[in-house]
Amino acid sequence: MKYSEIEASKLLNAGELTIDELIKVNILNFIRAIHLNRQDFIKSSYESEYFGELPMTFKKNAGQVIGLITADVGSEVRKYVFTDDGYESLEDIFLLLED
């Protein structure tokens, strides 16, 4: 999903969110912070953790062009890749290999 300030704002004002929407809003907020802090994404490294209802980690080493997000949804672990422009489910990317 391409980063969108409008989409992030809609979700923040939506009230009660589904797990998928909560993941989306957390990721979009993280990307928003990158933009607000005017960070050079490729030069930056991230080792951030969200705790609470939906634990998530955001990891990226300096020099890498993408980072990895892990979301713990009960007994399931969902993984995503992200840049300062957006994010994508790792599972969806692996589906491209099957084509």
List the helices and strands and how they pair.
Elements (H helix, E strand, L loop, with lengths): L4 H8 L6 H18 L9 E5 L5 E5 L6 E7 L2 E8 L2 E4 H9 L1
Antiparallel strand pairs: 1-2, 2-3, 3-4, 4-5
Helix pairs in contact: 1-2
Task: Name a few traits of the molecule.
35% helix; alpha+beta; 29% strand; 99 residues; 3 helices
Report on this model:
The chain is an alpha+beta fold. The protein has three helices and five strands; from the N terminus they run H-H-E-E-E-E-E-H. The protein has one domain. Helices cover 35% and strands 29% of the residues. The mean pLDDT is 90.
Summary?
The chain is α+β, with helices and mostly antiparallel strands and 99 residues long. It has three helices and five strands; from the N terminus they run ααβββββα. The chain has a five-stranded antiparallel sheet with strand order 1-2-3-4-5.
How many domains? The number is 1
DSSP strand (E) fraction?
Answer: 25-35%
Q: Based on Cα principal axes, name the global outline.
A: globular
Count of DSSP-assigned helices? 3
What is the CA-based Rg, rounded?
13 Å
Provide the residue-averaged pLDDT: 90
Uncertain stretches = none
Structural class: alpha+beta
Strand count, sense and barrel status of the largest sheet are: 5 strands, antiparallel
